[in-house]
């Protein structure tokens, strides 16, 4: 396997592990048996997703922020030269609450953006910027997953069993 194919497969695998849980018994970031971010979010109610513990941002705003960032990456992957300049990164943080319908739609939309980005990885020629952004997207998802899991234990993954 050439280096490009190996890189694409590895980054896609890490994104899959974070979003959908580790495939099989192999896990690089999460504990084995973890359901990943998307399934961790599904049992949460809109009220849980909207809660602001100690004035911190809500889970809904973290999810909205992840959705926004992935949508920009997907626009870039589809050929848009620079969807990032002028992007309103703060916009996702302004709306902290969601209704039941908004929460369901936001979860579905996040799943769609994750899937589209996973499939798009490696579709543009690699450069230092493209590689940094791609690897950074995995780290960014992991960061917000950890933050979300700290906000509500219902979204937490399984503890290490060793």
Plain-language structure description:
With 162 residues, the chain is mainly alpha-helical. The chain has one domain. The chain is built from seven helices and no strands. It has helices at residues 3-20, 36-41, 46-50, 59-77, 91-94, 100-120, 128-151. Helix 1 runs antiparallel to helix 6 (100-120) and helix 1 packs parallel to helix 7. The chain is globular. The model has no long low-confidence stretch (mean pLDDT 95).
The strand count comes to: 0
Q: Kindly estimate the percentage of residues that lie in beta strands according to DSSP.
A: under 5%
Report the principal-axis shape. globular
The topology string of helices and strands comes to HHHHHHH
How far apart, in Å, are the first and last alpha carbons? 33 Å
- Radius of gyration computed on alpha carbons: 16 Å
Compact description:
This protein has 162 residues and is mainly alpha-helical. It is built from seven helices and no strands.
SSE layout:
Elements: H1 3-20, H2 36-41, H3 46-50, H4 59-77, H5 91-94, H6 100-120, H7 128-151
List keywords for this structure.
162 residues; single chain; mainly alpha; 7 helices
